[in-house]
Amino acid sequence: MSRLVIVSNRIADPRKPAAGGLAVALGDSMKKTGALWFGWSGKIVEEADGGTPGEGKVHIEQAGNVTLATVDLCRKDHDAYYLGYANGVLWPVFHYRLDLGNYEPGFAEGYRRVNELFARKLLPLLKPDDQIWVHDYHLIPLAANLRAMGCRNRIGFFLHIPMPPPLITAAIPQQDWLLRTLFAYDLLGFQSDADLTNFSHYVQSEAHAEALPDGRYRAYNRTVQAGAFPIGIDVDEFTRLGESKESMQMFRRLREEYSRRQLLIGVDRLDYSKGLPQRIRAFRELLVRYPENQNSATLIQIASPSREDVDAYANIRHELENLCGSINGDFGGLEWMPIRYIHRTVARKRLPGLYRASRVGLVTPLRDGMNLVAKEFIAAQDPEDPGVLVLSRFAGAAEQLKEALLVNPYDVERTAQIIQQALRMPLDERRKRHEALLRRIKEQDVHWWCKTFLETLENLEQSQPAGDADY
Ligand code: ADQ
Whole-model pTM? Predict the structure, then answer.
């Protein structure tokens, strides 16, 4: 069995319980074959100490049979690659927000430099039959860099964020170059069928790619396989977490404190893609249209700090604070505050208790690749008395989670009506919907995701020679 090499912007030590996300997802596969995980160390070295730009140190550490290899970035590269092109251009555009892009000319160059640096530092660590799995928008051109250096390994790529329609993607500065580099991969994975369709239209219209049978595309003298692999959560692990002391305490405390009220919960990174102001406005609308919820419904909105050195994030934070403040001022009293807004990360161990104590889970992004909070909310519920998931139709998760109450988050009035429906839903209907949702997230959990992607990569025909490629 070949060794697995994971490359992502940040890595997590799989031995640490808080690793979460990708570390948990990949844990099984990494432990089975031994693995190398390569990424940025999180350290920024100033140019004077770090030598020429882009030449940070590589650190190697062993975590069981997983080797963790990380590289430092110098300030200039970090700012152009991470804050600039990845989070100032690609993130907004891939979330359909051309208006929030910061298209400074130097950013693309920094992005190219760091991808080239990653490839150069990774190459000597590779063995001939390693399978390489690259993650997310930070590292799109990595395979092209590796191929240019002679790498013949099988390389797969998974995009965790949405793939927008061609005319939106086409607005990315240097998009033609970025598009070409996708063809250096053997396998491209997307979160949803909608993303896959957008990719298909994009490569056919912009690269004149030929669509071959079975999801393959040919352009620039190479063929790439593409597919939808919706990411899941580790349902069993999350259920176990729900039985932890911290989670039970959280559940009991909230149930006691809100014994006469209904709780609604939102848990998000504070990001403009998550639709937080629209959600808060819908909650205000709920209180106005259905005044029986005043003194009775409380929204707990947890928004963890995120990318605070990117301007658009500071703006959304202020907007949210103002909105919550004005609703609490207008509707709240000594006995009851409509919104508890918490600008902090909640310990993962407490999350299941928080979800389980809530009658309604609000997951209403304007765009989201998948959204794992939706799946965590379902996994945490008591099947005998489950809460109701209100889910944006623009989250990738909506393709799978049809039994949730789907909303258009831009339509604040209708969203308020649907939240009311969720709050009033009879037990029988709640159980039926939850049962179907739970089945779905168990069938396609994170282990299924990982296994399906890696088996598809493994079963592809031998990687094509790089020499004649034209990207
Ligand atoms: P994110 O945009 O980070 O991920 P999401 O899928 O919701 O979004 O995952 C967030 C994770 O962080 C969840 O496990 C959640 O519990 C946790 N989290 C969020 N806010 C928190 C808070 N305030 N306190 C504690 N924990 C919090 C990107 C894409 C998504 C895609 C994932 C995985 O944007 O669309 O689903 O990758 O592919």
Answer: 0.96
